[in-house]
Automatic annotation (TrEMBL):
It comes from Oceanisphaera profunda. This is LysR family transcriptional regulator. Keywords: DNA-binding, Transcription, Transcription regulation. Belongs to the LysR transcriptional regulatory family. GO terms for cellular component: cytosol. PANTHER family: HTH-TYPE TRANSCRIPTIONAL REGULATOR YBHD, NITROGEN ASSIMILATION TRANSCRIPTIONAL ACTIVATOR-RELATED. GO terms for molecular function: DNA binding; DNA-binding transcription factor activity.
Length: 295
Protein backbone atom coordinates (compact mmCIF):
# COMPACT_ATOMS: atom_id res chain seq x y z
CA UNK A 1 0.00 0.00 0.00
CA UNK A 2 1.38 3.39 -0.98
CA UNK A 3 2.19 5.86 1.82
CA UNK A 4 -0.06 8.89 2.22
CA UNK A 5 2.06 11.96 2.84
CA UNK A 6 0.99 14.86 5.03
CA UNK A 7 2.00 18.26 3.70
CA UNK A 8 3.07 19.42 7.15
CA UNK A 9 5.42 16.43 7.54
CA UNK A 10 6.99 17.04 4.14
CA UNK A 11 7.48 20.71 5.03
CA UNK A 12 9.10 19.78 8.36
CA UNK A 13 11.44 17.37 6.60
CA UNK A 14 12.53 20.00 4.05
CA UNK A 15 13.11 22.60 6.77
CA UNK A 16 15.20 20.23 8.90
CA UNK A 17 17.26 19.29 5.81
CA UNK A 18 17.75 22.90 4.66
CA UNK A 19 18.38 24.43 8.11
CA UNK A 20 20.63 21.52 9.19
CA UNK A 21 18.87 20.99 12.48
CA UNK A 22 15.64 20.14 14.29
CA UNK A 23 15.85 23.15 16.60
CA UNK A 24 15.90 25.73 13.80
CA UNK A 25 13.16 23.85 11.93
CA UNK A 26 11.01 23.90 15.07
CA UNK A 27 11.46 27.67 15.36
CA UNK A 28 10.47 28.15 11.73
CA UNK A 29 7.39 25.93 12.15
CA UNK A 30 6.46 27.56 15.49
CA UNK A 31 6.43 24.09 17.02
CA UNK A 32 8.44 22.38 19.76
CA UNK A 33 11.50 20.36 18.81
CA UNK A 34 9.95 17.08 20.08
CA UNK A 35 6.91 17.76 17.84
CA UNK A 36 9.17 18.13 14.79
CA UNK A 37 11.08 14.98 15.74
CA UNK A 38 7.79 13.07 16.06
CA UNK A 39 6.63 14.40 12.67
CA UNK A 40 9.87 13.24 10.98
CA UNK A 41 9.72 9.84 12.72
CA UNK A 42 6.17 9.30 11.48
CA UNK A 43 7.24 10.23 7.92
CA UNK A 44 10.15 7.75 8.16
CA UNK A 45 7.75 5.02 9.31
CA UNK A 46 5.55 5.66 6.26
CA UNK A 47 8.58 5.45 3.98
CA UNK A 48 10.11 2.50 5.87
CA UNK A 49 13.46 4.26 5.58
CA UNK A 50 15.52 6.65 7.71
CA UNK A 51 15.83 10.19 6.35
CA UNK A 52 18.56 11.50 8.67
CA UNK A 53 21.75 9.90 9.95
CA UNK A 54 21.71 8.86 13.62
CA UNK A 55 24.30 10.62 15.79
CA UNK A 56 25.06 10.04 19.42
CA UNK A 57 25.99 13.65 20.08
CA UNK A 58 23.11 16.14 20.20
CA UNK A 59 25.52 18.78 18.91
CA UNK A 60 26.30 16.77 15.79
CA UNK A 61 25.28 18.29 12.47
CA UNK A 62 22.05 16.91 10.98
CA UNK A 63 22.83 14.99 7.80
CA UNK A 64 20.60 13.26 5.28
CA UNK A 65 20.89 9.56 4.60
CA UNK A 66 21.35 8.54 0.94
CA UNK A 67 17.62 7.80 0.88
CA UNK A 68 16.93 11.22 2.38
CA UNK A 69 19.10 12.91 -0.24
CA UNK A 70 17.09 11.18 -2.96
CA UNK A 71 13.77 12.03 -1.31
CA UNK A 72 14.52 15.74 -0.67
CA UNK A 73 13.99 17.01 -4.27
CA UNK A 74 10.83 14.86 -4.52
CA UNK A 75 9.47 16.36 -1.31
CA UNK A 76 10.24 19.88 -2.59
CA UNK A 77 8.47 19.08 -5.86
CA UNK A 78 5.39 17.85 -4.00
CA UNK A 79 5.34 20.94 -1.79
CA UNK A 80 5.75 23.31 -4.74
CA UNK A 81 2.88 21.61 -6.58
CA UNK A 82 0.68 21.75 -3.48
CA UNK A 83 1.46 25.42 -2.86
CA UNK A 84 0.74 26.37 -6.47
CA UNK A 85 -2.66 24.68 -6.34
CA UNK A 86 -3.45 26.21 -2.94
CA UNK A 87 -2.50 29.67 -4.19
CA UNK A 88 -4.52 29.27 -7.40
CA UNK A 89 -7.60 28.13 -5.51
CA UNK A 90 -7.25 30.92 -2.95
CA UNK A 91 -7.00 33.53 -5.70
CA UNK A 92 -9.96 31.96 -7.49
CA UNK A 93 -12.05 31.99 -4.32
CA UNK A 94 -11.16 35.65 -3.82
CA UNK A 95 -12.03 36.34 -7.52
CA UNK A 96 -8.47 37.59 -8.15
CA UNK A 97 -7.75 35.13 -10.93
CA UNK A 98 -9.53 32.70 -13.24
CA UNK A 99 -11.71 33.19 -16.32
CA UNK A 100 -15.09 34.89 -16.07
CA UNK A 101 -17.52 34.59 -18.99
CA UNK A 102 -20.72 36.58 -19.30
CA UNK A 103 -23.15 37.57 -22.03
CA UNK A 104 -25.05 40.85 -22.12
CA UNK A 105 -27.49 42.76 -24.25
CA UNK A 106 -25.71 45.66 -26.03
CA UNK A 107 -27.46 48.41 -24.04
CA UNK A 108 -26.01 47.24 -20.72
CA UNK A 109 -22.70 46.17 -22.26
CA UNK A 110 -22.19 49.73 -23.53
CA UNK A 111 -23.69 51.83 -20.74
CA UNK A 112 -22.85 50.04 -17.51
CA UNK A 113 -20.44 47.13 -17.92
CA UNK A 114 -17.24 49.09 -18.68
CA UNK A 115 -17.28 50.97 -15.37
CA UNK A 116 -18.61 47.99 -13.41
CA UNK A 117 -15.89 45.66 -14.69
CA UNK A 118 -13.17 48.27 -14.24
CA UNK A 119 -14.09 48.77 -10.59
CA UNK A 120 -14.62 45.06 -9.97
CA UNK A 121 -11.41 43.74 -11.52
CA UNK A 122 -9.04 46.46 -10.32
CA UNK A 123 -5.51 45.09 -10.42
CA UNK A 124 -6.57 41.42 -10.18
CA UNK A 125 -5.32 38.93 -12.74
CA UNK A 126 -8.84 37.96 -13.80
CA UNK A 127 -9.58 37.10 -17.42
CA UNK A 128 -13.00 38.26 -18.63
CA UNK A 129 -14.87 37.37 -21.83
CA UNK A 130 -17.97 39.44 -22.65
CA UNK A 131 -20.37 38.30 -25.38
CA UNK A 132 -22.59 41.08 -26.73
CA UNK A 133 -25.90 39.93 -28.27
CA UNK A 134 -29.67 40.19 -28.07
CA UNK A 135 -31.72 38.70 -25.24
CA UNK A 136 -32.58 35.48 -27.09
CA UNK A 137 -28.91 34.80 -27.81
CA UNK A 138 -27.94 35.62 -24.23
CA UNK A 139 -30.55 33.18 -22.89
CA UNK A 140 -29.25 30.49 -25.24
CA UNK A 141 -25.67 30.98 -24.06
CA UNK A 142 -26.79 30.68 -20.43
CA UNK A 143 -28.81 27.57 -21.26
CA UNK A 144 -25.86 25.94 -23.07
CA UNK A 145 -23.52 26.95 -20.21
CA UNK A 146 -21.29 28.88 -22.59
CA UNK A 147 -21.23 31.70 -20.04
CA UNK A 148 -21.38 31.87 -16.25
CA UNK A 149 -24.41 34.16 -16.35
CA UNK A 150 -26.23 36.54 -18.65
CA UNK A 151 -27.59 40.07 -18.52
CA UNK A 152 -30.81 40.43 -20.51
CA UNK A 153 -34.58 40.72 -20.41
CA UNK A 154 -36.62 37.63 -19.61
CA UNK A 155 -39.73 38.16 -21.72
CA UNK A 156 -41.49 34.91 -20.77
CA UNK A 157 -40.58 33.84 -17.23
CA UNK A 158 -42.94 30.83 -17.31
CA UNK A 159 -41.38 29.42 -20.47
CA UNK A 160 -37.88 30.01 -19.04
CA UNK A 161 -38.67 28.41 -15.67
CA UNK A 162 -35.29 26.62 -15.53
CA UNK A 163 -33.60 30.03 -15.31
CA UNK A 164 -33.48 32.45 -12.40
CA UNK A 165 -34.00 36.13 -13.16
CA UNK A 166 -32.87 38.91 -10.80
CA UNK A 167 -34.04 42.33 -12.05
CA UNK A 168 -31.40 45.08 -11.86
CA UNK A 169 -32.17 47.84 -14.36
CA UNK A 170 -35.41 49.27 -15.74
CA UNK A 171 -35.96 51.68 -18.64
CA UNK A 172 -38.83 53.06 -20.68
CA UNK A 173 -39.74 52.42 -24.30
CA UNK A 174 -39.67 55.30 -26.74
CA UNK A 175 -39.45 56.21 -30.41
CA UNK A 176 -36.10 56.84 -32.12
CA UNK A 177 -35.96 58.89 -35.28
CA UNK A 178 -33.58 61.30 -37.06
CA UNK A 179 -33.23 64.68 -35.32
CA UNK A 180 -34.81 66.45 -38.32
CA UNK A 181 -37.80 64.08 -38.48
CA UNK A 182 -41.35 65.52 -37.96
CA UNK A 183 -41.73 63.41 -34.80
CA UNK A 184 -38.53 64.79 -33.24
CA UNK A 185 -40.26 67.99 -32.06
CA UNK A 186 -42.59 66.07 -29.72
CA UNK A 187 -41.82 65.60 -26.03
CA UNK A 188 -43.97 62.43 -25.85
CA UNK A 189 -45.83 60.32 -28.40
CA UNK A 190 -49.00 58.27 -28.74
CA UNK A 191 -48.41 54.98 -30.50
CA UNK A 192 -50.88 55.85 -33.27
CA UNK A 193 -48.60 58.71 -34.35
CA UNK A 194 -46.21 56.07 -35.72
CA UNK A 195 -48.67 54.54 -38.15
CA UNK A 196 -48.05 57.09 -40.91
CA UNK A 197 -44.28 56.50 -40.94
CA UNK A 198 -42.06 53.65 -42.10
CA UNK A 199 -41.46 51.56 -39.00
CA UNK A 200 -38.39 49.36 -38.48
CA UNK A 201 -38.74 46.62 -35.89
CA UNK A 202 -35.82 45.17 -33.92
CA UNK A 203 -35.07 42.67 -31.16
CA UNK A 204 -36.76 44.79 -28.50
CA UNK A 205 -39.97 45.31 -30.49
CA UNK A 206 -41.59 42.37 -28.69
CA UNK A 207 -42.05 44.75 -25.76
CA UNK A 208 -45.11 45.97 -27.70
CA UNK A 209 -46.72 42.53 -27.46
CA UNK A 210 -49.78 42.49 -25.22
CA UNK A 211 -50.11 46.29 -25.28
CA UNK A 212 -52.53 48.45 -27.23
CA UNK A 213 -49.66 49.23 -29.61
CA UNK A 214 -49.19 45.58 -30.59
CA UNK A 215 -50.60 46.22 -34.07
CA UNK A 216 -47.44 48.20 -34.86
CA UNK A 217 -45.59 44.89 -35.13
CA UNK A 218 -47.65 43.93 -38.17
CA UNK A 219 -47.21 47.47 -39.49
CA UNK A 220 -43.40 47.11 -39.47
CA UNK A 221 -42.15 46.47 -42.96
CA UNK A 222 -38.53 45.92 -42.00
CA UNK A 223 -36.66 44.09 -39.24
CA UNK A 224 -33.03 44.77 -38.26
CA UNK A 225 -31.45 42.78 -35.44
CA UNK A 226 -27.97 44.32 -35.33
CA UNK A 227 -27.82 47.60 -33.39
CA UNK A 228 -25.06 49.16 -35.49
CA UNK A 229 -26.99 48.44 -38.67
CA UNK A 230 -30.20 49.76 -37.13
CA UNK A 231 -28.52 53.02 -36.10
CA UNK A 232 -27.04 53.44 -39.58
CA UNK A 233 -30.45 52.95 -41.21
CA UNK A 234 -32.07 55.41 -38.81
CA UNK A 235 -29.38 58.02 -39.37
CA UNK A 236 -29.85 57.64 -43.13
CA UNK A 237 -33.54 58.49 -42.70
CA UNK A 238 -34.81 55.05 -43.66
CA UNK A 239 -37.53 55.08 -41.01
CA UNK A 240 -38.26 55.18 -37.27
CA UNK A 241 -38.14 52.51 -34.60
CA UNK A 242 -39.02 51.83 -30.97
CA UNK A 243 -36.21 51.28 -28.47
CA UNK A 244 -35.82 51.24 -24.69
CA UNK A 245 -33.92 54.24 -23.34
CA UNK A 246 -30.74 52.31 -22.47
CA UNK A 247 -30.60 50.97 -26.03
CA UNK A 248 -30.59 54.48 -27.46
CA UNK A 249 -27.05 55.25 -28.69
CA UNK A 250 -25.52 57.52 -26.06
CA UNK A 251 -24.23 60.93 -27.22
CA UNK A 252 -25.71 60.43 -30.69
CA UNK A 253 -26.50 63.87 -32.14
CA UNK A 254 -28.16 62.61 -35.32
CA UNK A 255 -31.00 60.76 -33.61
CA UNK A 256 -33.69 61.73 -31.10
CA UNK A 257 -35.44 59.66 -28.43
CA UNK A 258 -39.09 60.49 -27.67
CA UNK A 259 -40.80 58.56 -24.83
CA UNK A 260 -44.12 56.83 -25.54
CA UNK A 261 -46.87 58.12 -23.24
CA UNK A 262 -49.55 55.80 -24.65
CA UNK A 263 -48.87 53.11 -23.81
CA UNK A 264 -46.17 53.51 -21.16
CA UNK A 265 -44.03 50.40 -21.55
CA UNK A 266 -41.06 49.59 -19.32
CA UNK A 267 -38.36 46.96 -19.80
CA UNK A 268 -36.71 45.04 -16.98
CA UNK A 269 -33.14 43.89 -17.44
CA UNK A 270 -31.40 41.66 -14.98
CA UNK A 271 -29.06 38.81 -14.22
CA UNK A 272 -30.02 35.45 -15.67
CA UNK A 273 -28.53 32.19 -14.45
CA UNK A 274 -29.51 28.56 -14.39
CA UNK A 275 -31.48 27.27 -11.43
CA UNK A 276 -29.78 24.75 -9.14
CA UNK A 277 -26.32 25.52 -10.54
CA UNK A 278 -23.69 27.31 -8.48
CA UNK A 279 -21.64 30.08 -10.01
CA UNK A 280 -17.85 30.09 -9.94
CA UNK A 281 -16.44 32.30 -7.15
CA UNK A 282 -15.49 35.13 -9.58
CA UNK A 283 -18.93 35.02 -11.25
CA UNK A 284 -20.76 35.04 -7.90
CA UNK A 285 -18.56 37.90 -6.71
CA UNK A 286 -19.38 39.93 -9.83
CA UNK A 287 -23.11 39.28 -9.43
CA UNK A 288 -22.91 40.44 -5.80
CA UNK A 289 -20.89 43.48 -6.90
CA UNK A 290 -23.47 44.45 -9.56
CA UNK A 291 -26.36 44.10 -7.10
CA UNK A 292 -24.52 46.08 -4.42
CA UNK A 293 -23.73 48.86 -6.90
CA UNK A 294 -27.45 49.43 -7.44
CA UNK A 295 -28.21 50.06 -3.76
Amino acid sequence: MLPEFKIAQLRHFVWVAELKGFHLAAEKAHRTQPAISLSIRDLENKLSEALFEKHNSRAAKTELTPFGQHFLPKAKELLAHHDRIAEDMTLLAEHKTGHLRLASVPSIACRFLPELLLNFIGSNDLHVSVFDDNSDAVLKMVENQQVDFGIASLFDEQRESEKHFTPVWEDRLGVVCPSDHPLASHSELHWQALREYRLISNGTSRLLEGSEAESLLAHSQYYISNMMSLVAMLEAGFGVTTLPWYAFPKDNTKLTFIPLHTPVITRRIGIIRLNNKSLTPPAQALVDFILASQD
